[in-house]
Each structure stands twice: as C-alpha cells, then as structure tokens.
Amino acid sequence: MERSQGTKHPLIIGLTGNIGSGKSTVARLLRAWGYPVLDADELAKRARENKKAELKRLFPEAFQEEELDPRALGRLVFSDPERLKALEALLHPEIRRLLEEELRGLKGERVVFLEIPLLFEKGWEGRLDGVLVVTAPLELRLERVMARSGLSREEVLAREQAQMPEAEKARRADWVLENRGSLEELEENLRAILRAIEAQADRPRGGP
Fold first, then answer.
1. Beta strand residue intervals within 37-107, DSSP E
2. Alpha-carbon gap, residue 184 to 190, rounded angstroms
3. Shortest CA distance to 119 belongs to which of 20, 23, 11, 5?
4. What's the whole-number mean pLDDT along residues 153-161?
5. I need a labelling partner for 138 at 20 to 30 A (CA). Which of 5, 50, 181, 194 fits?
C-alpha cells in the first residue's frame, strides 16, 4: 500500500477485534451501507489453497487425503506456539500479497475497510490510516463463538489467548466500538464513528 506525496487515495481503515466481538456483524453493516470491506479470512482461504502443497508437508495430520481440514489445522496450531509460528510464516506473506492486490483494484473509493483479526499482532496498523476495534465482554464473546461454531469453551479460549488482549487493542485503536447491547445500539454507535471517519477522509492527505 504505497503512499505518494499528494496522491489521492482512499482512506484505509482496519477493522479488528478479538474472537466473538462482532466485527463480522460490523463488516456486514458497512457493506450494506455501501462501504467496501475486504475480508482477511477470505483471503486466508485463498492463501491456504495457494499454499496447499506446503501446508501438507508441514501439517500432514490436518489433511484427509488431498483435502485440508481447517478445524483440525486449528487444533494443531493453537495448542502449539511453534507450529502456529510456522503456519503464520507460510500464510501471512501470501495473505498480504493478495490483500494488496485487492486494494490496487479499488478505484474511486473514499473509505475502504480491511477486516483483519490479527491486525495488531502482525503489525498492520503502520500501513493503515486508522483502526476501528470492536469490543465485547469476554463471556459474551465466548457464548457467541460456541453457539455458532460448535467449538468447546477450551477451544475458543485457546484462540482468545493466541490474540493480543482486547484492552490493549482498544488502547491502540483510533476508534472503539462496544458491542454489548442491541443491534440498534451497535448501528447508532457505528454511524457516529463513521461520521468521524468521513470527516477524516475529507481532510487533505499527503505523504506516508
């Protein structure tokens, strides 16, 4: 995401939050309201397909013949920090390449959102114009994920513990969106944040 002095470019806002925070709900709202939202999870699926041969060499037990079982892969890496590092070293450069390819294809947009679960963990904030973090109480987040995924509490907690603490993400964010109430409350709070983001998009921007 190169920045050239004086070049008009969309405001690029990272959208993140820990597991179960509701960032996907926020992304759906943004899309419904006309904002482009690129999804790092979808890019990760493409990256896994592109790197399938390397994944099979590293994690053969996560495959059923030639098909990768993402849940089995998750169980392997979230219980073993070294294997998690190996997975990230393989996939994250490819995800970054695919993401930048998508951004180059967007023309004439004022604001673009990037939904990236591990935004801070992987140092993306320095490449963005701002970061919106979605937060919610831990127990509520655990309930949400268990209800939709079939994962056990221990499996969800393992994913939570692999991420930066929510409070630290909120501290680093430009905007924090609490998601502990109704959908109407979420929409109202999101619209207030969007007004601030749109105002920032209207201001002249120059170099890096």
1. 37-39, 63-64, 67-68
2. 10
3. 23
4. 90
5. 194
Cβ–Cβ < 8 Å for 12, 89:
no
Distances (CA, A) of 150 to 25, 53, 143: 19, 28, 11
Identity of the residue numbered 136: A
pLDDT digit string (tens) for 35-82?
A: 999 988 899 899 999 999 999 999 999 998 889 998 899 889 988 889
Give pLDDT tens digits for 83-141: 999 998 999 899 889 988 888 888 778 899 999 888 898 888 888 899 999 999 999 99
d(CA 29, CA 26): 5
CB contact set of 205 (below 8 Å; sequence gap of 6+):
9, 11, 129
Please tell me whether residue 115 adopts helix, strand or coil conformation.
strand
Phi, psi of 63 (to 5 degrees): -110, 145
Token pair for 123: 């140092």
DSSP string of 118-187, one letter each residue: TTTTTTGGGGSSEEEEEE--HHHHHHHHHHHH---HHHHHHHHHTS--HHHHHHH-SEEEE-SS-HHHHH
Q: Is the pLDDT of residue 3 over 80?
A: no
CA dihedral 25, 160, 142, 130 (to 10 degrees): -30
* Cα 77 to Cα 55: distance, rounded to the nearest angstrom: 12
